[in-house]
C-alpha cells in the first residue's frame, strides 16, 4: 500500500516526529521537514512549486511550521488498515480438535479460562447454553476499540509534541547566543546609550556655565589686581619721598614744613568677587521616564 510522498524528494512522509513530517507552507503546499530544512534561508522558504514565500520562521527552525494534520490523520488510518495483516481463519478447538473454534463465549459470568468455543462446546461442553458471538465479529469489535485507543493516544502525543515545540521556542529565546536574546541586549544598550547622552549633555551645559562664570570673574579680578598694584607703586614712591625728607637736618625740615601735607591719594578699595565654591555650580536633577529620555 503506497503512502503519500513529498513532492520535492519523492520520499514517503513520516507520521512520527522524524525528518519527513509533512509541513504546510503559507501557500498551502506541503513539503517534508527534511526538504523544508534545506529550503529555509534567512527565516523564510520560497515554495519550489509556486514560488510563494513563507516567512517568519523563527531561528530557521522548520519545526515551527504547522504540521499537515489532515494528511497525518489520513496516513494514520491508512497505516492501521495496512498493519492489519493476520490470518483470520479460526483455530482448532482445544477441547474438540476436530472442530474449528468459530465462536467466542460472551456470557458475562462465564468462569471458563478459554473463551473460544466450537459447536460441540456450545451443545455439550462447558459453554453449553452460553451466549456466543462469532470470533471474527468479536475480534473486529476489539480491533476497533484498539484502533480508537491508538488514535486517542496519538492525539495526546501530538498535543505533547506541540507543547514541547512551544517550550523549546521559549528556551531558545533565552539562549545567550540566540537572536531574541541579542535583540533584547541591543535594546538595553540603546537605552543606556540614550541615558549617557542625556547625562553628557547636562554635564557639558553645567561646565560651560562654570567656564563663563570663571571668565567673567577672572576679568574683574585681573582689573582689581592691576589697580591695587598701581596704587601700591604710587604709595611706595610717596613713602620713599617722605623717608628722604627725614634725612634732612631740623633746620631744613623747618623750612619745608609747609609742603608737609597728606598725599592727595584716592584710595580705591573695591570688594572682590567671592571665592569659587561648589555652591556656585547649579547641578540639575535628571529624571528618567520609562522610554529612557530625560527631563531636567
From TrEMBL:
Annotated GO molecular function terms are:
zinc ion binding
Alphabetic keyword roster: Metal-binding, Zinc, Zinc-finger
Matches recorded under InterPro entries: E3_ubiquitin-ligase_RING, Znf_B-box, Znf_C3HC4_RING-type, Znf_RING, Znf_RING/FYVE/PHD, Znf_RING_CS
Q: Name one Pfam family in it.
A: zf-C3HC4
Per the record, the domain of life is Eukaryota
- Parts forming coiled coils: none
Domain RING-type positions: 6-51
What protein am I looking at? RING-type domain-containing protein
The protein's organism comes out as Caenorhabditis remanei (Caenorhabditis vulgaris)
Q: What is the lineage of its organism?
A: Eukaryota, Metazoa, Ecdysozoa, Nematoda, Chromadorea
Amino acid at each position: 500500500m503506497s503512502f503519500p510522498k513529498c513532492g520535492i524528494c519523492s520520499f514517503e512522509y513520516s507520521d512520527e516526529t522524524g525528518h519527513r513530517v509533512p509541513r504546510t507552507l503559507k501557500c498551502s503546499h506541503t513539503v517534508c521537514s527534511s526538504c523544508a530544512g534545506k529550503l529555509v534561508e534567512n527565516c523564510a522558504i520560497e515554495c519550489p512549486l509556486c514560488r510563494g514565500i513563507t516567512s517568519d520562521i523563527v531561528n530557521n527552525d522548520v519545526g515551527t511550521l504547522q504540521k499537515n494534520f489532515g494528511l497525518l490523520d489520513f496516513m494514520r488510518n491508512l497505516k492501521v488498515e495496512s498493519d492489519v495483516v493476520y490470518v483470520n481463519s479460526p483455530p482448532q478447538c482445544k477441547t474438540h480438535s476436530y472442530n474449528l473454534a468459530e465462536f467466542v463465549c460472551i456470557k458475562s459470568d462465564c468462569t471458563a479460562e478459554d473463551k473460544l468455543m466450537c459447536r460441540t462446546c456450545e451443545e455439550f461442553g462447558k459453554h453449553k447454553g452460553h451466549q456466543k458471538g462469532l470470533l471474527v465479529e468479536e475480534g473486529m469489535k476489539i480491533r476497533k476499540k484498539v484502533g480508537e485507543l491508538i488514535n486517542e493516544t496519538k492525539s495526546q502525543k501530538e498535543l505533547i509534541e506541540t507543547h514541547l515545540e512551544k517550550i523549546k521556542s521559549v528556551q531558545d529565546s533565552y539562549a545567550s547566543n540566540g537572536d531574541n536574546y541579542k535583540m533584547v541586549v541591543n535594546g538595553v544598550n540603546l537605552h543606556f546609550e540614550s541615558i549617557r547622552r542625556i547625562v553628557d549633555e547636562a554635564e557639558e551645559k553645567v561646565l560651560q556655565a562654570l567656564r563663563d562664570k570663571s571668565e567673567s570673574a577672572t576679568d574683574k579680578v585681573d582689573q582689581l589686581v592691576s589697580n591695587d598694584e598701581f596704587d601700591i607703586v604710587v604709595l611706595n614712591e610717596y613713602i620713599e619721598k617722605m623717608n628722604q625728607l627725614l634725612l634732612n637736618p631740623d633746620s631744613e625740615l623747618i623750612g619745608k614744613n609747609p609742603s608737609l601735607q597728606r598725599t592727595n591719594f584716592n584710595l580705591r578699595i573695591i570688594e572682590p568677587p567671592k571665592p569659587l565654591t561648589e555652591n556656585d555650580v547649579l547641578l540639575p536633577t535628571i529624571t528618567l521616564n520609562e522610554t529612557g529620555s530625560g527631563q531636567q
